């Protein structure tokens, strides 16, 4: 299978595949990534029609990497074994219990194609050999809990920005994050601009672990996305929204221009 380079910017378009899964006996269940497509896993195939080497996953992955030995690679026997998964897959089998969305860009951006639970099929002409990330949807996510450490990190104590800064520092791989990290982050409504200045990915695609930004409500608001649904809505954890200067959660909010929703997603 030839390796095709990306040459065009492609507008996002979801194409759902809902082919039913036909049971052929008692299934195996997900273990370590071993090149076998077990129950509970989302699997890429190097060739069309579920042929060639397999790369199996149990979680969402925002960036597969592009070089060995650090990239996610095809592990199963057959054509393509040992090659990096990014921009090299032709078909999939979704053996999870959730919809899985394959994206053209890393960090869950660009054109995408959805595969329902149990579906198998070929990537469409946009995504074939142009797969850069995938996201497990339908309510998969993290259990909400108030783990805020009380360190304001240069923001107003017990405000949304202080809580979001804690989550960035503790869960998103930026332990030194603060109001002065690479730039001045300021009020919540300016976080999308600050993120662009320092090269953090900014788009309108919710994913677990993204920081949601509202830049239309007064001085703005930020929250941590902990669950995403197949209809595009998502759940958030936050401070100082429904509960003044305190922790709270909301379910099934959206990306929209509404005052109570969010306009941008930051992917650290």
Would you mind describing this structure in some detail?
The protein contains two helices and 14 strands; from the N terminus they run E-E-E-E-E-E-E-E-H-H-E-E-E-E-E-E. With 268 residues, the chain is mainly β. The protein has two domains: 1-137, Crystallins (Gamma-B Crystallin, domain 1), CATH 2.60.20; 160-267, endopeptidase domain like (from Nostoc punctiforme) (endopeptidase fold (from Nostoc punctiforme), Alpha-Beta Complex). The protein has a six-stranded antiparallel sheet, with helices on one face. Strands 1-6-5-8 form a four-stranded mixed sheet, with no helix packed on it. It is elongated. Mean pLDDT is 87; it is low at 1-30. Pfam families: CHAP (PF05257), Inhibitor_I36 (PF03995).
Brief rundown of the structure:
InterPro entries: CHAP_dom (IPR007921), Papain-like_cys_pep_sf (IPR038765). It contains two helices and 14 strands.
- Indicate the proportion of strand residues: 25-35%
Q: Class of the largest domain, according to the CATH hierarchy?
A: Mainly Beta
**Structural class category:** mainly beta
CATH topology of the largest domain: Gamma-B Crystallin, domain 1
Order of helices and strands: EEEEEEEEHHEEEEEE
What's the tally of helices?
2
- Total number of domains: 2
Shape: elongated
CATH superfamily of the largest domain: Crystallins
Just name the CATH architecture of the largest domain.
Sandwich
Mean pLDDT: 87
